[in-house]
Structure formats: structure tokens, C-alpha cells
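Forum > Structural Biology > Help requests

Title: Can anyone predict the 3D structure of 2-OXOGLUTARATE (2OG) AND fe(ii)-dependent oxygenase superfamily protein-related?

Hi all, first post here. I have the sequence for 2-OXOGLUTARATE (2OG) AND fe(ii)-dependent oxygenase superfamily protein-related but no way to get a structure on my laptop. I'd be grateful if someone could post the C-alpha cells.
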Amino acid sequence: MAVSPASMPENPIESRAPPPSPIASGRRSSVTNDEVLTEFLEHSLRVPDLILPDNFFPKQKTVETPPRIDWQSLNSKESNSVLKTLDSIARIGCFQLVNFGIPK
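Reply #1:
Sure, ran it for you. C-alpha cells for 2-OXOGLUTARATE (2OG) AND fe(ii)-dependent oxygenase superfamily protein-related below:
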């Protein structure tokens, strides 16, 4: 149902909302606020430069070819292949196993 202006009461319902905030008329205050905000952010968001020590994370890793370990020499007690295998695992984490009986 439509309401005509003539049927509205003369005293409208009073609102309990506060009046609107005043708007700044000049641009100077907004520029000043921007400068203050920029200065605050520059000082509060300072993150130190992170420099990791080289002994934990070397800058450059050398690429090594894993040593070739003969399967037959692992069974012999006279060979140093077991020591060579352990050294390779400790240094680079792998080795090449050859002569293990499976053709290419």
C-alpha cells in the first residue's frame, strides 16, 4: 500500500543515531595524516635483513660423481670398498654399485 506525504505524521520518529561526523574541508590534514601513517609504518614494519651463515647453508655446492663400488669387492675382506662406501654415504649420500649381476 502506497503512503502519500499527506498521510505521514507531522512529527517523524526520532532517531537515536548520533549525527554524522564532520568532514575535513582542506586537503592539508589528509596529507599530514598520510605522512604520519607512512612514518608509523616505516618504523613499525622494520624487518631485519636475514643473513644465513655459510657453514649451515653453503653458497655453492660442488657436484660430485658418486664413487663406483664393485659388488664383488664388498664381499672380499682385503678390499677397502666398505670404507669407500661408508665415506661416500657420509659425504654425498650415495654411491654407484657395479658388477652386481644384473645386465644393463
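The chain has three helices and two strands. The beta strands are 68-70, 96-98.
Shout if anything looks off.
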